[in-house]
Amino acid sequence: MMIRTLAALGLSIASIAYPALAADPKPGDKPTTPAVKPPEKPKPKAYTTIEEAGPDYAFQGEYGEAEAGKAPFGVQVISLGEGKFRAVAYPGGLPGAGWSGEKASKVALDGKLEAIAPLTLSGKGGVTATIASGASLSLKTDKGETVELKKIERKSPTLGAPAPAGAIVLFDGKSLDNWQGGKLDPRGFLAVQGGGEPKTKQKFTDFTLHVEFVSPFMPTAGGQGRGNSGVYLQNRYEVQVLDSFALEGVDNECGGIYKNAAPKVNMCLPPLVWQTYEIDFTAAKWEGDKKVKNAVVSVRHNGVMIHEGLEIKNPTGGSEKEAPGPGFIKFQDHGNPVFYRNVWIIEKK
Fold first, then answer.
1. How many Å apart are CA 181 and CA 128, to the nearest integer?
2. Cβ(238)–Cβ(271) under 8 Å?
3. 75 near 95, Cβ under 8 Å?
4. If pLDDT is split at 50, 70 and 90, which confidence band does 30 have?
5. Centroid of chain to Cα 286
6. How far apart are CA 160 and CA 247, in angstroms?
7. Whole-number average pLDDT of the chain
8. What average pLDDT does range 200-226 have in this prediction?
9. What is the chain's alpha carbon radius of gyration, rounded to the nearest angstrom?
10. 221 — phi, psi (to 5°)?
11. Of 176, 205, 228, which Cα lies nearest the Cα of 295?
């Protein structure tokens, strides 16, 4: 057999391609490893109807009495997804219906729904809450007493309030003629997601505004990612919209004047429940380009006064700067499917 040399084939060692080899490490070099991109967390699911919300939603909600003084306790139960729950027990009744507002008096409880057993939540001092079917709750207090509470569905007393004479109907469920942006949901709602942030075509100075809104059910989300939107007054000052049911009630939660003031009481109802704002707004006063008086706002959330005669010292970040003259009403699109309906405004002359 004839063996041909490289030279006979017209080849040299230099002409043969070899895979690229890493350079020899130098003294002091740190070993390197290929960068591995961490897997992306799945986006929290947002449910917009009770029918699709799943079995956990039946346990979430309020237990007690709607009227102050009718029950020794009120309990709010929050779904955290995958059968996990958190509850808050309020001595005296629910927020706005008996509870004193003293945060130190609240009791937090946690638990998980098992396959067969009822949902049991436990807190400090031996306090427990047991929910067998979602229709009633049995609360054992730190004194060993047992209180039976029924599940209730509170509704705002101004839900569905018709626009009075002289009001401007901004949204009646049929048309977006008064808006720039936004999307008309087939159910007759104004959707903030997917149509660009809706803001009114008309600008306003001093007014009273009625707004109805509903937050999605997002059990695995948290913080600012849970049903986030906002009502912007003059496109400058935000009244926060968020699913902050049973949370602390701070300035970046539902009812808060963002970065300015927390609500006096957290009146947020559970997700998928329609809620109301009545907002009385007086614009800032100016002498030329100098502000001489802050804007003033009063807000009722689900019929309860949560801000009264509050001076708004600063505009909300991401909004228009404070300036003389009127401004738009805007609903913020924060990436969550929040809906609005029955929006009307009365201009104050």
1. 48
2. no
3. no
4. low
5. 34
6. 26
7. 90
8. 96
9. 29
10. -90, 170
11. 205
**pLDDT at residue 16 is higher than 50:** no
- Which two structure tokens, joined as six digits, stand for 57? 């939603």
What single letter denotes the amino acid at residue 55?
P
Residue with tokens 């040399």: 5
The two structure tokens encoding residue 329? 């009403």
For the chain, the three-class secondary structure string (H helix, E strand, C coil) is: CCCCCCCCCCCCHHHCCCCCCCCCCCCCCCCCCCCCCCCCCCCCCCECCCCCCCHHHHCCEEECCCCCCCCCEEEEEEEEECCEEEEEEEECCECCEECCCCHHHCEEEEEECCCCCCEEEEEHHHCEEEECCCCEEEEECCCCCEEEEEEECCCCCCCCCCCCCCCEEEECCCCCCCEECCEECCCCCEECCCCCCCEECCCECCEEEEEEEECCECCCCCHHHCCCEEEEECCCEEEEECCCCCCCCCCCCCCCECCCECCCCCCCCCCCCCEEEEEEEECCEEECCEEEECEEEEEEECCEEEEEEEEECCCCCCCCCCCCCCECCEECCCCCCCEEEEEEEEECC
Joined together, the tokens standing for residue 299 give: 């807000």
Q: Considering only CA atoms, which of 113, 123, 101 is closest in space to residue 60?
A: 113
| pLDDT tens by residue, 55-71 | 999 999 999 999 998 99
